[in-house]
Q: What sequence folds into this?
């Protein structure tokens, strides 16, 4: 990490989780980032290397508790705390801090929808009004002016990038959208759960949260904004034996006279100047390994077997474009840096 | 393998592929099966243990070429040859042999559909008329009387088992069916292809054959028979980093006033007496690892997020219920043995 | 599971762990085994299918607590409880029961060695005197007469099978033996530990217990008996991203004028009539996948690069020959059944 | 890739293999590197993205044949060609080019040893005399002055880094060294071999080249230089189901009165100022995943069970410190750039 005078002084809240250490990996390539504070309440007083030996090559501050931090001198906070604990923590941060929140706590604009899907009242409704939903490619101006960015979820990022432009153009039907998504295990964080043990995940696949996964309203919110009307989707996530990556296979009906080729052309045009979104030649589809470890989203479009239908396949790394990478992308925008700073990597392949 | 006087004298054509050795594993538990002949043209003269060291504990005949076999004294042939080579081979077998063909060559009743999807004329149209499509649970009587059984494909088995009873009952809509399937690598056989190298499959997922996989017409044929009308489906297979297993996530519209719960009840009733098909409690969905190494199919049903829709999830082992296991199940039926003989295993878990 | 009048009435203590369900899988192929009782104190009152959905095809008794069991009518107990809890439990079982204990609690004949490596006094020293160490191929007569068999550990089984005959013959040096072992995750049981989460095991390898793993004294005990003198070994286990399997690579100095070829010949001769131990052609080495899911041990011998040294490579499935399979093999011997009953499977490959 | 006037003009020969694309990934973070030429004879005329879709975000020159390249204007060549083809290719390159060769063709100083292990005469014996063996930490000055650097093999790098300082200090015995190494599949390159298919590697492990792997003489050469006398080692590589990474577990006898703790201290002191070699606290051992995707080598030291012996465990990423990363490290040294330029990444974890 460079020590240039124009460096940004950063705190990471919840540094002992997977999104926290992924921020460290990526910020290590960012010439303007300086890590000033790492918090991890449960591990306060330790060095992060005791928990994650792979950070040994870095020089890092010791882990502290959140309420021990002196916030003066900090510029920006990445909040990597669990869902449902974040609203209160961010409410208490000084307002000179810019905040990128990687939890789900500020992603749903409608606090009643939040209450319905998360099972409790929103704890910072005023702050919610201020929060900007940070799907960067579709909110660049709002992010630029934001103090608090709600970083999108991994599934919602992967699903919205191909669908938003098509719904905006009226090229796909708003009903009957089916999203079948497959994710690596890090999407669940570093949770002590029997169903995340190696032997219970390896060499198999299963669906979870069928018909009721909490990312559903977040996706529907974005699609509704794009379509200008309510959108209800089928969305089934699956847990796969891989560390990182999301593949979303999305089945749509064509609308407005569009062909499957047209969908590909509209996406290619929309994302032609985007550094992180890449539309493949028609009929070619991406693999998660093409974006492993990167901030890129690859999108493929193909014709479907029944007439009048098409298939969109999009791939991201859930810890990068789906979490820490997009958080840095948003930081870059919020602070007026070139958007790709520190995010230039191509995939670790194989 | 028992040497009882009532043993069945068996030949396996194409014994050096994955379905061939899976037959050997399963027949090793079958008290009536005797392996008399193993063919593998490319490896004729070798012992199978030179190719597959794990068969060392078995006493097996040496590999021979097909045209070297003296067919007298054989009762039944399992044909594990590649697609498109099988029609001619089976045409030339003596007619006293019962045949279970694990290739795709006799699965499509309409030879014009075959020609369209496989790119060449059918080479044994007379034999095609005789072939019985052996999805055992739905063709038991035909299989009992058959001489030539076309063993269903792995995807078609996994997709048809949940859908056929529901289409027969008119409980799901015939249009808008979306099948998103995920398979382990053995579905592709032991093929020398760069995209099947470990490093190209591990830790990732991708779709293939998007909108045009050859199992589509086979599935549509079975669904059309059940529905009594043409059915066109969206079907996307994905290649996953696991050895065995297929998970099919199927999205359907409800019809005829049925609820998602009704679908579950209808399936439970239909399969109550079936030893290999198990319907889970409502809302519970299977994992491929629950059927790993077994002839079982597990089926789950859940309500979907948009009203009027449901999700079916079915899991099989592509090498067992999706190939060699169902082939033995069909053999048992053809020869009047108890249908579960040799197929009693539960999953190798973990 | 057959219901023959000559069936054995079996209880499994600790049925909700990996060795417990592996016993169920294997006993499902055993014509004389009847499962009468399953205990799991934490889950008493549940059906096992609630914990392990893959057992759905079986008809099983409900889980009960150990102290609720009426032991009359039981013939044999498999004890799959955690290390250090077992000595007391077995002490309290009625003495008409035959017991195969899969824990480490009765494996070390010297209770002082036990106390040193396990950190507490032995809690059933009288019972220890009665216990027979059940490495079947090397203790068949003692097992036949035993009431209590201490089933060997997975590493000790895999390491002792190649070394015991060679030490007995004086063909390898007793000092400088280096055993480098690699194991799948199920060797650690179904433990809730962060280092067993999928993301922490996948796509990597590490050593553990370096220089001090608890299986060391168990191996040294067996080697000392074979050599007739104390043996100290280097033994390093490694945790690998696979579900099952142990590969032990053992480096030895030649002794008594033996060549590496001689080692292979001596092992081949010693194990010629053993149904579960297979010695490969000289220079050929096994893979864990050749024995996956089976009770077999494959052994290879090769010359080493420095003169006067050889390499032994042995492979087992840690849950079968390294645990539940050998336990059933011992049961068969204890009860006078053919030793291979229910254990005829070859590998699930791939 | 920056286009600064002080950029280095680079050619990669054999760009369509795994070390070639890994160079592209790493050079993408190098501020002074400019990719001018990519060769791949078999794919000449294509864009690399047709072979490796993940390079889509990069702007790269089209693939050409080696003999089509105009070498004027090039500064440095990375040669990623297969073993045995490289000696002739490099012989014909203009001498103004600096060359880092990633093959094995120039690693053995003694061309008779080369002929013995590689089965043919050396084809460029004059060039061999000029070649510098580029284990950077132990050859920095020679590399600085070199025109042709033979980049070390992946196993040799991982094994020599812990052993060289200890042999130089006389702290470990020169005989009886046992190296048990475990590697991910990319060590074998992108070869079309049945034993590298996913289903043949997944969920298992096996040893290969037992007693005779070609990296043995390369390791022995380096150890002999350090010890000042001949060294013969036991070296067994194993193929593991992971994409990247090598773990070497090395068993040594203590010498010169050293304890296991002393070994750790000597290594810590020797590597205290090295940016890429990290010695862990005594008794702690590394995992390959701690260095995944990085140029780091982590080393752990522990006491062994038999007195007078110790265990060294070292971990690298075979494609980075074991190949393309060390190649760039050598390039940096050859061209007078800061040695860590472009190599600052910590592990992609998980």
A:
């Amino acid at each position: 990490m460079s020590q240039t005078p124009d460096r940004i002084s950063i705190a990471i809240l919840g540094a002992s989780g997977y999104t926290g250490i992924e921020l460290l990996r990526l910020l290590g390539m960012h010439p303007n980032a300086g890590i000033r504070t790492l918090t991890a309440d449960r591990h306060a007083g330790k060095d992060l290397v005791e928990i994650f030996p792979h950070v040994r090559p870095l020089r890092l501050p010791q882990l502290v508790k959140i309420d021990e931090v002196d916030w003066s001198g900090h510029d920006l906070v990445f909040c990597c705390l669990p869902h449902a604990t974040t609203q209160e923590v961010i409410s208490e941060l000084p307002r000179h801090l810019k905040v990128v929140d990687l939890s789900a706590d500020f992603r749903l604009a409608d606090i009643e929808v939040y209450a319905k899907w998360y099972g409790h009242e929103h704890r910072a409704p005023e702050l919610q009004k201020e929060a900007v939903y940070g799907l960067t490619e579709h909110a660049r101006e709002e992010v630029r002016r934001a103090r608090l960015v709600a970083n999108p979820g991994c599934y919602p990022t992967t699903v919205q990038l191909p669908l938003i432009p098509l719904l905006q153009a009226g090229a796909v039907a708003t009903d009957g959208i089916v999203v079948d998504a497959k994710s690596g295990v890090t999407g669940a964080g570093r949770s002590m759960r029997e169903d995340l043990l190696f032997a219970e995940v390896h060499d198999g696949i299963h669906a979870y949260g069928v018909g009721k996964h909490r990312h559903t309203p977040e996706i529907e919110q974005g699609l509704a904004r794009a379509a200008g009307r309510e959108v209800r989707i089928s969305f089934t996530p699956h847990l796969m034996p891989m560390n990182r990556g999301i593949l979303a296979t999305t089945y749509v009906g064509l609308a407005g006279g569009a062909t499957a080729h047209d969908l590909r052309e509209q996406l290619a045009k929309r994302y032609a100047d985007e550094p992180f979104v890449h539309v493949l030649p028609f009929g070619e589809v991406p693999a998660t390994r093409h974006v492993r470890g990167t901030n890129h989203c690859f999108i493929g479009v193909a014709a479907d077997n029944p007439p009048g239908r098409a298939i969109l396949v999009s791939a991201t790394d859930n810890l990068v474009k789906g979490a820490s990478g997009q958080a840095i992308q948003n930081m870059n925008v919020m602070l007026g840096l070139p958007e790709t700073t520190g995010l230039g990597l191509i995939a670790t392949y194989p």
About this structure: The longest helix of chain C spans residues 154-168. The first strand of chain C starts at residue 8 and ends at 13.
